[in-house]
Amino acid sequence: MKKLICILNIALLMLTITGCAGASDYEIKLINDYHAVRMSANNVKIFKEDTKDTTGKAPIIPPYYEDKEDEYNSESVEKIGQDNRYILAKTNKDMYYILDTEKETLLEYLSESEFEKYKKELNIVNDIELKSLDEYEKIR
Mean pLDDT, the chain, as a whole number? Predict the structure, then answer.
């Protein structure tokens, strides 16, 4: 976990240093201090602003598992939806995620049908649409 926090802190530092971010790198502000950050051409992750993550255990999308680092590095968020509590995401690996920003819990699903089923069980309204990252305002 310390390694993950270190990696995320380094990534945030790199994004904030003037002149180091690539022309196409950006950040999208999401709800409850979460952000989607494009770290390279094919690498977008969602995580909580490090200064607001007081426990160091806030979930990230996609989740990081030390024994699956290669999978983590190749998985990238492609679509995001949100309301005032939940962040929904789909990745390039066709994985679906529901992040409860109040409880700071992350649920992951292997199929769209399973994802839709649990959205209903959690009473997440159907009008939360998974939108392309291009549809969000970006901070450079």
Answer: 85
**End-to-end CA distance of the chain, in Å?**
28
Report the domain count for the chain. Answer: 1
Q: Provide the residue type at 135 as one letter.
A: E
Report yes or no on 139 lying in a domain: no
Number of H helices, E strands in the chain: 3, 8
Is residue 140, in this structure, part of any structural domain at all? no
Give the DSSP H/E element, type plus range, for residue 46.
strand 43-48
CA–CA separation, 137 and 131 (whole Å) = 12
Structure token pair of residue 32:
């409850």
d(CA 103, CA 99): 9
**Residues paired with 80 in a beta bridge:** 89, 131
Identify the domain containing residue 20 by its residue range. Answer: 2-134
Q: What is the pLDDT of residues 44-100, one digit of tens each?
A: 999 998 777 777 778 899 998 888 888 888 999 999 999 999 999 999 999 999 999
Name the residue among 68, 19, 72 with its Cα closest to residue 44. 72
- Domain assignment present for 85: yes
The 3 state secondary structure assigned to 5-17 is HHHHHHHHHHHHC
